[in-house]
Amino acid sequence: MTSAPALARPAPPAAVVDERRIGLRARARHTGALARRSVLQIRQNPTAMTDALLTPIVLTVLFVFVFGGSIGGDGGRAQYTAFLVPGLMVILGLTIAMAVGVGVHDDFRTGVMDRFRAMPIGRSSVLVAKLVVETGRMLVAITVLLAVGALLGFDVAGHWPGLLAAVGLTAVFGTSLVWSFMLLGLTLRTAQAIQGLSVLVLTPLEFGSSIFVPTSTMPDWLHTFTRFNPLTHMADAARGLALGEGPVAGPVFWTLVWSVGLTALTAPVAVAKFRTKT
Fold first, then answer.
1. How far is CA 27 from the centre of its chain?
2. Which residue, 81, 109, 207, 278, shows the most beta carbons closer than 10 Å to its own?
């Protein structure tokens, strides 16, 4: 009696229709429907917003009251709060984006993505819908951050257009990070690997930047690294736009260059990986 052959893992389900025949209007409609589905899921499970609502509160209070007295100089915690809050916009973008990578991996593990790939919709619509929802969560987190910062003394001194521009630029940079982490979630095999690699890469980028402290206090070799760090460009741009202090044009330009470059490199690869992932 022969043993039964081992079951092979099924191939990705084929699209019901040729994806190339799906027009832009149909793709936009599919994206909207999928985004609405995700928002309804968040309404049914509000705990999905825990990171967006609590992370800005915890980070702001922690850094202001632990480091503000010693780093703030003569201005104390108020001066450090003004320095810190624009930088924390970048951290929130990273935090939300990193969670996306794990979420995409879990969606494949539970079979949700396989059901989407069996539907007559554009493959890119699935990822773009997730991008839209996560950008919305990012904006909610930044709003909470600004509210907490205002309670602790953060004042833009009338630079409201600049503050809105800083929020918009952070969202643009954040979306490029979302594409990067979606690609990571589609590539690595376990959630632990995604989280481990993310922490390994992001920790030196975060602390080797101008997010938490002025780079002028760092040793020469680290100061050189910060000059090429995209997080430094983003933090300096947000700080210059929101407060009207320091250079603006250069940091904004390089932030946009990094955002466009990361999106151009990772978005097409992420969509292609989504089509073929098994």
1. 23
2. 81
**SS3 labels along the chain:** CCCCCCCCCCCCCCCCCCHHHCCHHHHHHHHHHHHHHHHHHHHHCHHHHHHHHHHHHHHHHHHHHHHHHHHCHHHHHHHHHHHHHHHHHHHHHHHHHHHHHHHHHHHHHCCHHHHHHCCCCCHHHHHHHHHHHHHHHHHHHHHHHHHHHHHCCCCCCCCHHHHHHHHHHHHHHHHHHHHHHHHHHHHCCCHHHHHHHHHHHHHHHHHCCCCCCCHHHCCHHHHHHHHCCHHHHHHHHHHHHHHCCCCCHHHHHHHHHHHHHHHHHHHHHHHHHHHHCC
Please list the pLDDT of the chain residue by residue as tens digits (278 residues): 444 444 444 445 544 445 566 777 778 888 898 889 888 888 888 888 988 999 999 999 999 988 877 775 556 788 889 999 999 999 999 999 988 988 888 888 888 887 887 777 777 888 999 999 999 999 999 999 999 999 998 988 778 999 999 999 999 999 999 999 999 999 988 888 988 998 898 999 999 999 998 888 889 889 899 999 999 999 999 999 999 888 899 999 999 999 999 999 999 999 888 888 76
> What are the DSSP calls for 14-72, one per residue?
PPSS-GGG--HHHHHHHHHHHHHHHHHHHHH-GGGGHHHHHHHHHHHHHHHHHHHHHHS
Tokens of 47: 């705990």
DSSP symbol at 157: T
Q: Give CB contacts under 8 A, 24+ apart, made by 61-66.
A: 61/148, 61/152, 63/88, 63/212, 64/152
